[in-house]
Design a protein that fits this description.
Keywords: ATP-binding, Kinase, Nucleotide-binding, Transferase. Its EC number is 2.7.1.144, 2.7.1.56. This is 1-phosphofructokinase/tagatose 6-phosphate kinase. The chain is of the alpha/beta class and 314 residues long. 34% of the residues lie in helices and 26% in strands. The protein is globular.
Length: 314
């Protein structure tokens, strides 16, 4: 079982429109609503690729009941209401415009301790853990780091795909796996990496500080992975266009699926699969879904390169 933690879930709303232009009225051709949030998206992708996953985190009773109808879930009912995220998807080219609500403020003083206890009780069944997404108001920034320590202390690989102060706290947990984008890498390291080698060097500083691996997502430019054993870049020879909203979640699902298995592949293979799975999410209109046949087709098109040992030595 792979456990995902979503601290600030959302109802994902997708509006499909033709010829979307800001500043004018549009008729919506179709609407889709479903339960979402980054960790829930990871669980969806894992279940699609044949890996059993359970989602936990914070929710209210209504959201939890809706999620339970389609996914294995075990939420702490602590939010007064659950936010919405709106994606406006252009019918012709799949381009997406996203509007993200901040979410409710956590008011239950015991909720954080309840979640820590719940994850502690589930970690014995888990082959991997993914903690991802934003934090609701009233939650300390160190909570993802605290959750990561529970898994790492139990010998379970843990990915933290968070941002801001939560990412800074998670980066200080020895053994954690980080998946920042370029902006988040800049915030963590105080650098402004541009080239592949510069990205690898910045990530290597985090590995030197104790991270088990750092996988930097770079959009159409692919990904860079740095571990104590080396550094690699991977990208599609021809990037796909579409909705990038769930691409990072799909990549996280691919990485934790590989690390949670009994026979862990080498990092070049993990990185190639992450790029292919991410691409298979980009072509879908809603986050948390992938095109399984496309994933298999583009895997052979992923170009993986071994990088020179980054400055700082990893």
């Amino acid at each position: 079982m792979i456990l995902t933690v979503t601290l600030n879930p959302a109802y994902d709303m997708t509006y499909r429109v033709e010829n979307f232009e800001p500043g004018r009225a549009h008729r919506v051709s179709s609407v889709e609503q479903r339960v979402g949030g980054k960790g829930i998206n990871v669980t969806r992708v894992l279940n699609q690729i044949g890996k059993y996953s359970r989602a936990t985190g914070f929710a209210d009773h209504t959201f939890s009941a809706a999620a339970e109808r389609e996914l294995p879930v075990d939420f702490v009912h602590a939010l007064p209401w659950v936010r919405r995220t709106v994606v406006i998807s252009e019918c012709h080219n799949g381009a997406a415009t996203s509007l993200w609500e901040p979410g409710a403020r956590l008011t239950n003083p015991d909720a954080v301790d309840q979640l820590l206890v719940r994850v502690g009780g589930l970690v014995g069944e888990a082959g991997g853990i993914v903690v991802s997404g934003s934090l609701p108001g009233g939650v300390r920034a160190s909570l993802p780091a605290d959750l990561a320590r529970i898994g790492i202390d139990a010998g379970v690989p843990v990915i933290c795909d968070v941002d801001g102060l939560a990412l800074e706290a998670a980066a200080r947990v020895p053994g954690v796996i980080l998946m920042p984008d370029l902006d988040e890498l800049t915030g963590l390291t105080g650098t402004h990496p541009d080239t592949t080698d510069e990205v690898a060097a910045a990530a290597a500083a985090l590995v030197d500080a104790g991270a088990a691996a750092v996988i930097v997502t770079r959009g159409a430019d692919g990904m860079v992975a740095v571990t104590p054993d080396g550094a690699w870049s991977a990208a599609l020879s021809e990037p796909l266009s579409g909705n990038p909203t769930g691409a990072g979640d799909a990549a996280a699902a691919a990485v934790i699926a590989a690390l949670a298995g009994p026979d862990r592949p080498e990092w070049p293979a993990i990185l190639a699969d992450a790029v292919a799975t991410s691409a298979a999410a980009v072509v879908m209109a809603v986050a948390g879904e992938i095109d399984l046949s496309l994933r298999q087709r583009v895997l052979a098109q992923v170009v993986v390169e071994k990088l020179a040992d980054p400055a700082g030595g990893c």
